C-alpha cells in the first residue's frame, strides 16, 4: 500500500473497534490508526497493521487480538505488519484524542508546538487532570516509547504526554 | 541468495542489536529513573529496527533461518557491528558518549538509506529515522549537560569522549558488501558521511565545552568480525538462553 488511506471493509469496522490497544486500554486500535486495511479476500480477512514505534511490543498482542476477535465473529484472518507508510500521530482520531485526555494522557500537539515543548521548554501541554498549561517536561522518554514524562506545576500531578510523530 | 545484500543488512542491523543490548543492560541500573527509562526506550527502538532488518535478512537467506537464529546463534566473528557500539557502560558518561557518537552517524546513514532503491530498506529507514532523531536529541542534550555541568561530570564525559574517539573512524569504512550495494543503489556510501559527521559532532562538543580529541589513531575490525575483548562477554549474556535451552520460545 503506498497511500496513507485506510481500506476497511465497513462490515469489519465494529469488530476492529472492539479491540483495544493493550498499553492504552481506553483506545481502540482503530482510533489509534494502526489498522491500515482490512478486506475480505476469498473468505479470509486480510488485515494490515503498522507499528507506532519499531519496537512497539504491543504489535504481537494486537495481531493476536485481531485474529481472535475476527474468529469469534466467524472470520479466518491473516495479519500482516507493514512499515510503509510510517505511522504518524495524525492518524489518531478525534475520538481517540479525547479518550487519551480522559484517561490522563495529554494528546500530541502539532509538530512545531511539540518541538517547542520538548526542545525549548515552552509551556503548551495541557495537564489532563486540571487543565493548566503550567506544566514541565521531566523526561523525554516515558512509560512507553510513544510518550514523554511531564508534571503539572499547579496540581503537581505527573502525567504522560503522547509525543508527536510525523 | 544475494550474499552482499544479506551481509549489508547484517552490517546495519548488528550495530543496532549490539547497542540495544548495551542499553538494555541499564534496565534497573540507570543513574536515575528517567535516564534508566530513556536508555531502555532507546534499546527498544533499536531492537524493533533490528527485527525488521533480520526478518528481511532471513527472507533473503531463504534457508529456514529465522530472525531469532540470526540474532542469537552466530559466533563472535560473524557479527559485523562497529567496535564503538560494543564498548561497555563504564559510567553514564561513557553510555552517553557512545550513544551520541553513534546517533549522529545513525541519523546521517538512515537519511541516505531512506533513498535506497531497495523498498524494504527504505521503509525500515523511514520508520527508524524518526526514532534516531529523537535519540540524537537526547544524547546531544546530555553531552551538553555533562560537559557544561559540574567539574566531575565534565571530567568524566571528556574522558569518555577521549576514549571512544578512537572507534569513530571505523563508521566510515566500507566493506565489500557496502561497495557492492552502493554500486547497485541499494546501500549508503558511508565515506561520504564523514565530513558532515565530524562537523556536527564537533559543534555539539564545543557547545558542551568538551575538547575535541585530536588523535588520528583509530581502531577498526568490527566490520570484519574482529571485535574487542568486550564482545564475547556481551554475546554470552545475549545468547545465554538460546545456547542453554536451544529453540526455547517465550
Automatic annotation (TrEMBL), chain A:
Question: Do you know which Gene3D superfamilies this protein is assigned to?
Answer: Fe-S cluster assembly (FSCA)
Tell me which NCBIfam families the record gives: PA_CoA_Oxy4
Indicate the segments forming the PaaD zinc beta ribbon domain, all copies. Answer: 114-163
Q: Which residues form the MIP18 family-like domain?
A: 15-73
Q: What is this protein called?
A: Phenylacetate-CoA oxygenase
Q: What is the lineage of its organism?
A: Bacteria, Pseudomonadati, Bacteroidota, Flavobacteriia, Flavobacteriales
Q: Which Pfam families match?
A: FeS_assembly_P, Zn_ribbon_PaaD
TrEMBL record, chain B:
Q: Which GO BP terms sit in this record?
A: phenylacetate catabolic process
**One Pfam family of this chain:** PaaA_PaaC
- InterPro entries recorded for this chain? Aromatic_CoA_ox/epox, Ferritin-like, Ferritin-like_SF, PaaA_PaaC, PaaC
Q: What SUPFAM superfamilies has UniProt attached to this entry?
A: Ferritin-like
Q: Return the PANTHER family for the record.
A: 1,2-PHENYLACETYL-COA EPOXIDASE, SUBUNIT C, PHENYLACETIC ACID DEGRADATION PROTEIN PAA
- What NCBIfam families does its record include? PA_CoA_Oxy3
Instruction: Indicate what this protein is called per its UniProt record.
Output: Phenylacetic acid degradation protein
Amino acid at each position: 500500500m503506498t497511500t496513507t488511506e485506510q481500506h476497511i471493509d465497513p462490515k469489519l469496522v465494529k469488530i476492529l473497534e472492539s479491540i483495544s490497544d493493550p498499553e492504552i486500554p481506553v483506545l481502540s486500535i482503530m482510533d489509534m490508526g494502526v489498522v491500515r486495511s482490512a478486506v475480505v479476500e476469498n473468505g479470509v480477512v486480510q488485515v494490515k497493521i503498522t507499528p507506532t514505534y519499531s519496537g512497539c511490543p504491543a504489535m504481537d498482542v494486537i495481531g493476536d487480538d485481531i485474529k481472535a476477535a475476527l474468529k469469534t465473529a466467524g472470520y479466518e484472518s491473516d495479519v500482516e505488519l507493514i512499515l510503509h507508510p510510517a505511522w504518524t500521530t495524525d492518524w489518531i482520531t478525534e475520538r481517540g484524542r479525547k479518550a487519551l485526555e480522559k484517561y490522563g494522557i495529554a494528546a500530541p500537539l502539532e509538530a512545531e508546538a511539540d518541538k517547542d515543548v520538548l526542545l525549548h521548554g515552552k509551556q503548551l501541554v495541557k495537564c489532563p487532570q486540571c487543565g493548566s498549561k503550567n506544566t514541565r517536561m521531566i523526561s523525554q522518554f516515558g512509560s512507553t516509547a510513544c510518550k514523554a514524562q511531564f508534571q503539572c506545576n499547579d496540581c503537581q500531578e505527573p502525567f504522560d504526554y503522547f509525543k508527536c510523530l510525523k | 541468495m544475494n550474499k552482499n545484500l544479506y551481509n549489508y543488512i547484517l552490517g546495519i542491523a548488528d550495530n543496532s542489536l549490539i547497542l540495544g543490548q548495551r542499553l538494555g543492560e541499564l534496565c534497573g541500573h540507570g543513574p536515575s529513573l528517567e535516564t534508566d527509562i530513556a536508555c531502555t526506550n532507546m534499546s527498544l527502538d533499536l531492537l524493533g529496527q533490528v527485527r525488521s532488518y533480520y526478518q528481511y535478512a532471513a527472507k533473503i537467506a531463504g534457508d529456514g533461518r529465522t530472525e531469532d537464529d540470526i540474532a542469537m546463534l552466530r559466533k563472535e566473528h560473524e557479527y559485523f557491528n562497529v567496535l564503538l557500539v560494543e564498548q561497555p557502560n563504564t559510567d553514564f558518561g561513557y553510555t552517553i558518549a557512545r550513544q551520541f557518537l553513534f546517533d549522529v552517524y545513525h541519523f546521517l546513514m538512515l537519511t541516505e538509506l531512506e533513498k535506497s532503491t531497495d523498498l524494504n530498506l527504505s521503509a525500515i529507514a523511514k520508520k527508524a529515522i524518526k526514532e534516531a532523531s529523537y535519540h540524537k536529541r537526547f544524547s546531544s542534550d546530555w553531552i551538553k549537560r555533562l560537559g557544561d555541568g559540574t567539574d566531575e561530570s565534565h571530567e568524566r564525559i571528556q574522558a569518555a569522549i577521549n576514549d571512544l574517539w578512537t572507534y569513530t573512524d571505523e563508521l566510515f569504512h566500507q566493506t565489500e558488501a557496502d561497495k557492492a550495494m552502493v554500486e547497485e543503489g541499494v546501500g549508503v556510501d558511508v565515506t561520504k558521511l564523514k565530513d558532515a559527521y565530524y562537523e556536527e559532532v564537533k559543534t555539539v562538543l564545543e557547545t558542551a565545552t568538551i575538547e575535541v580529541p585530536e588523535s588520528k589513531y583509530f581502531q577498526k575490525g568490527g566490520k570484519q568480525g574482529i571485535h574487542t575483548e568486550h564482545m564475547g562477554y556481551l554475546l554470552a549474556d545475549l545468547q545465554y538462553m538460546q545456547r542453554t535451552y536451544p529453540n526455547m520460545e517465550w
